[in-house]
Specification:
It is built from 5 helices and 4 strands; from the N terminus they run αααβαββαβ. By secondary structure, it is an alpha/beta fold. The chain has one domain. Strands 1, 2, 3 and 4 form a 4-stranded mixed beta sheet that branches. Strand 3, helix 5 and strand 4 form a beta-alpha-beta unit. The chain binds zinc ion (ZN). Zinc ion binds next to loops.
């Protein structure tokens, strides 16, 4: 059967377009429609969705979990909990929600599943808003919370906040 040769890629491409339309229909991914949500983490929900669909076509089963071994963002995720964003939900809160509840993914047969996300190592160039002690402490706390909630397995901060004495930032560690 010649058709068996490449149904996966054909279907994936086809569904990829269809899934993009679906993305905006789901509350979990409404986030990316919002103009203020331009942080890199917002794209992860789309990545999880697409990886899940790829796995679904390869194996016939929707994965329960999609792991991202390493994820790089220039600044650490913003956080509603710790007050570094005015967004309805910060990137920290989204990553935790996607890790605990998952991203809603719909397969071609209209089957809906929540696919959980886990980042092996979050690599950031620097702390988000790391110019003041208050914001740097909040951004550090957000990273620690994400690890506690298992949204990330660990972190690496490439550069210290230049103007601050890092010993005065609670819990600050370049790697954890
Ligand atoms: Zn953010």
């Amino acid at each position: 059967m010649e058709d068996d040769d490449e149904p996966v890629s054909h279907s994936s491409i086809k569904f990829s377009k269809k899934s993009k339309k679906h993305l905006v229909e789901f509350a979990d991914i409404d986030h990316i429609q919002d103009e203020e949500n331009t942080h890199a983490e917002d794209k992860l929900a789309v990545v999880i969705h697409q990886r899940a669909i790829e796995i679904y076509y390869k194996t016939g089963e929707m994965p329960a979990l999609v792991e991202i071994p390493e994820f790089f963002v220039s600044a650490s995720p913003c956080s509603k909990t710790f007050g570094t964003t005015k967004k309805a939900s910060g990137c920290t809160e989204n990553l935790i929600a996607w890790a605990i509840k998952g991203v809603l993914v719909r397969s071609e047969d209209e089957c809906e599943s929540y696919v959980k996300m886990r980042i092996g190592k979050l690599i950031v160039n620097k702390l988000y808003k790391g110019n003041t002690y208050e914001d740097a402490a909040s951004s550090m706390a957000a990273i620690i919370l994400m690890k506690a909630k298992k949204a990330i397995g660990g972190w690496e901060i490439q550069n210290d906040p230049g103007k601050l004495d890092v010993s005065k930032i609670p819990g600050y560690k370049r790697k954890g």
